[in-house]
Amino acid sequence: MDSDDETQKSTDADPGDGRDESLNERLDRNWAEILQELRVTQTGTQILTGFLLAIAFQNRFADLDAFQHRVYLVLVAVAVLTTAVALAPVHLHRGLFRQRRKLELVRTAHVLVQIALVGVSLVLVGTMLLIFDVVAGRTAGYLAAAFILVVSVVIFALPRVLRRRPSSTPTRAEGRVDRPRRPANL
Predict the structure, then answer these.
(1) Domain total for the chain?
(2) For the chain, what is the HEC assignment?
(3) Which residue has the higher pLDDT, 115 or 101?
(4) What pTM did the predictor assign?
(5) Measured between alpha carbons, how far is 174 from 139 in angstroms, rounded to an integer?
(6) How confident is the model over 5-21, as pLDDT tens digits?
(7) Domain housing 131
(8) Is residue 182 assigned to a domain?
């Protein structure tokens, strides 16, 4: 074992966070968390894309006006692109497997997940626009899309707002938080 491996195993990646994990352990945990987020994102994106693709084969599709056809085509393009971006970290992992590039993998996958989430938001906004436009009229479509856009912006802003607040998780200096202790009588 060389000195770099020794340092990574024995040195805490962030001594102030209370986790007591090496850089490699932290990267493995971050990658596992990204994979869990991707499972949720990919499933939802693929189902939504499938539904969008099926719309063109419905009888009422011919009744849509030119605006609705354009919105639909943009939605399909964004949904398919979002699905591809959400799948990209898996391909990246395969390409970098056993290359000792986990840091780049985690950083790049983080960016790809962020892009995929923006894509999902755009598809949701566009879907609301299309459905409300078809069912209730153009004004209702614009209002529904604007509402979902505002909700999406709030969701994207929430982590930034929370990062500005003091953390409620104690640091190592305040006492470790591993798991709740069981009462002595159990």
Answers:
(1) 1
(2) CCHHHHHHHHCCCCCCCCCCCCHHHHHHHHHHHHHHHHHHHHHHHHHHHHHHHHHCCCHHHHHCCHHHHHHHHHHHHHHHHHHHHHHHHHHHHHHHCCCCCHHHHHHHHHHHHHHHHHHHHHHHHHHHHHHHHHHHCHHHHHHHHHHHHHHHHHHHHHHHHHHHCCCCCCCHHHCCCCCCCCCCCC
(3) 115
(4) 0.75
(5) 55
(6) 444 445 756 666 667 78
(7) 21-164
(8) no
